[in-house]
Amino acid sequence: MTQIDNVLHENRSFPPSEEFRAKARYSSEEQYEADYRRSIDDPEGFWGDVALELPWIEPFDQVLDWSDAPRAQWFTGGKLNASAVCLDQHLGGARANKTAILWEGEPGDVVSYTYTELHEAVCRFANVLKKRGIQKGDRVAIYMPMIPELAMAVLACARIGAIHSVIFGGFSASSIRDRVEDGACSAIITADGGWRRGKVLALKDVVDEALSEGGASGGVHTVLTVRRTENPVGWTEGRDCWYHELAAEVDADCPPEPMDAEDTLFLLYTSGSTGKPKGIQHTTGGYMVGTYLTTQVVFDLREDDVYWCTADVGWITGHSYIVYGPLANGATCVMYEGAPNQPHPGRFWELIEKHGVTVLYTAPTAIRAFMRWGDEHVDKHDLGSLRLLGSVGEPINPEAWIWYRNKIGGGRCPIVDTWWQTETGGIMMTPLPGVHATKPGSCMKPFFGIDPVVFDSDGEEVTGEGGGYLAIRKPWPSMLRGIWGDSERFRETYWSRFEGNLYFPGDGARVDADGCTWILGRVDDVLNVSGHRLSTMEIESALVSHPSVCEAAVVGRPDEITGQAICAFVSLAAGLEGDADMEAVLAAHVAKEIGKLARPAEIRFADALPKTRSGKIMRRLLRDVAAGKEVTQDTTTLEDVSVIEKLQGR
Ligand code: WT7
Fold first, then answer.
1. pLDDT tens across 390-448, in order?
2. Quick one: CATH architecture of 526-647?
3. DSSP string covering 195-229, please?
4. Which of 309, 361, 394 most suits a substitution to test ligand 1, by most atoms within 8 Å of the C-beta?
5. Which of 126, 397, 493, 580 has the lowest tally of Cβ within 10 angstroms?
């Protein structure tokens, strides 16, 4: 909880302009308070009404069944299909020819799909999956670049009731293998490649490598490959097939599979405080209701918006706020394949001007990078179409917030700083843009139905401004329903920290005198690097799997751009030298084991790591060393005090 000093003294606040407020769906505190109160006092009435706005195939009998807590069941008895919520419901009326996805590739190629066209493409995709024998309940891994076919693949799985498990394109072969094995996936959808920083990322090759060592490949009968970059790919007859070849053989008629509200829609793996990623399980009804309402209210969505969430569909932000939430609302969504500085650092601003983007949802790490790249890249473009800005993924520092507001938003666009997680499925805390006078760095207020509380380490409620552990008191529709294949870990991780079925997200928080919430960062061994969640244990096990490494400890240190950076402390096997070559070898090894996103920014070598007399690595102390701080912690329990001096390079 290192952020507390930074935010304690922040007392600026920015109310929405009269112009914004005049058109906003929620435009007064009274209006927010009234709906919030109802959502807390009568959650079933509140969520039942919201759910009725979705097209159900069969109506639900009960809004919430919490009798099997902590596993909630929402909208029991109801049947629906997530792809039909996103597509079919828009076909009858004015949205039929409205643009659903407006996509631009990194090289500048543009393709757009109307709702009618996207519906047809998804039906065809779904028929290809069926043709390959994929059925309701089967798990399908998706490892793709940010191309429209990624959204189609996700929706096609949903259409036939297959459970998708999207794996971010930056993960390595062994990370794919772990996820495919854990989920017992029977098929993988990939692409020959994707464009990233002017180069082809050869995704199919990585999938081949993941499947090359037996194990997972046993269950995978199909690797379906979309052609994007036309680079040569390896081929395994019988298992591998080209999407475009099969698509030409099927028709575009594919009725949506009626799914139970509590049928699993997808798995998405995320890191926890152990070495093994968790397959977070989301179901259909509650997730769709949650993402539908949050998208509509938090982004104050209007019919003519051109909405752009810059996340990758490989993360939860892309699932909820590129695919399901916006499409359920019939929005026009921009999707971009490439890097924000390719071919120039003004690429985002060029895209906003070119496509007339009105709502931009991005991450603090990106905002800080733009600041560093310089205002001149922003100044070249007219950003006058923007009316609302969003931030997600990590705490945003007030300086970046103010820059975002002034430089990108021209001082006129409200900023919604949205706090949530892979596990929560949708936004949990946020200002409402037409209501709240936002404070730079605060995620402000709970969304409807969310009942947060802050506890101290003894489990006592914190009523002052001191800060403590955040917990959520009530179930909400888009909450996770489990960890795939590990109900014990589900209970242990999220529901055992506090008494009485309270959800523990693993974040620290502070509530100020005005009732605004400030997220203080993770309180567990989870790092947040550029808004990507990484487990210190996972990186440590990758390091010790290298024959040169004896022991490793990984901590986060503050970084101006990425929020946190990975700092590894390593002791090597006898006789080996911790020089720059060794550092490069080990960094490459971690990238190979997990993915480039986990590559340490810094590796420090020592003969031994600081441990207590009982043999526990003293991480807090290492955090101070990594941050270049004077070690203030009591070192009397330390086994060998000289270790610290060596690590500090003295
Ligand atoms: C963790 C969740 C939510 C989608 C992207 C990340 C941190 C997220 C904020 C925010 C402060 C934030 C938390 C959370 N986080 N949004 N607006 N302010 N912190 O999803 O990988 O599941 O990570 O990201 O620490 O626990 P995720």
1. 999 999 999 999 999 999 999 999 999 999 999 999 999 999 999 999 999 999 999 99
2. 2-Layer Sandwich (3.30)
3. EETTEEE-HHHHHHHHHTTSGGGGT--EEEEE-SS
4. 394
5. 580
